[in-house]
Amino acid sequence: MELTVRDVGRMGYGEALELQLRLVEERREETIGDTLILVEHPPVITMGRKATDADILVPVAQLEASGVEIHRITRGGEATYHGPGQIVGYAIINLYNHQRKLRQFVERMEEVFIRLLAEHYGIEAGRDDEHRGVWVGDEKITAIGIAVTRAITMHGFAFNFAPDLSHFDWIIPCGIRDRGVTSLERELGREPDMERVKAEVVESFCEVYGYELVSGPDTLTGSSSGSR
Prior knowledge:
Blueprint: E1 2-10, H1 13-28, E2 35-40, E3 44-47, H2 60-65, E4 69-72, E5 79-82, E6 86-92, H3 102-121, E7 134-136, E8 139-149, E9 152-160, E10 180-181, H4 184-188, H5 194-209, E11 212-215
Parallel strand pairs: 1-2, 1-11, 3-4, 8-10
Antiparallel strand pairs: 2-6, 3-5, 6-9, 7-8, 8-9
Helix pairs in contact: 3-5
């Protein structure tokens, strides 16, 4: 199987969502192959299908005055924060390429980061029996939420590379009140190189899912293919 990766850099959430929806249709029509979008968002709170207004802990007017957007979206789960210093990946993938097994698909996405953290940084991370995502102890380092429409996945993961962790105090992250959040920067005690980490994410993603990379992380939004 082949995977195209599009690194679109810093992009507003609404624009990235429109890109996802367009690529979902293109994937359904088979005018593109399986695609992973990498993006970094300005501060935004996304509300999954299970989210309630109580998941936001500060006045919405205060957030909006600070330029923080709020979006209600179709992925599973509750409230999630995205912002600078976070590597967000949107997987536009035909689930039929993965035996139509959504649970296995999500578990593999968790495995991407469990393997990456262990192999490249010596950090022991794992799953939680009750809550999706990747955890270092009792603190989440990668949030995962997937939506599927007519066999095509969208949304994906949010990996805490080096975000401002205090921004997670704005919400009850993923509806979990008794756990914390962490980042690669916090675990290492230093800020690693973001471009290197992106390359490691792509490498681990391809390894876990069994993809051959046909377009690299430097691919621009308007480009759909390219050799590497």
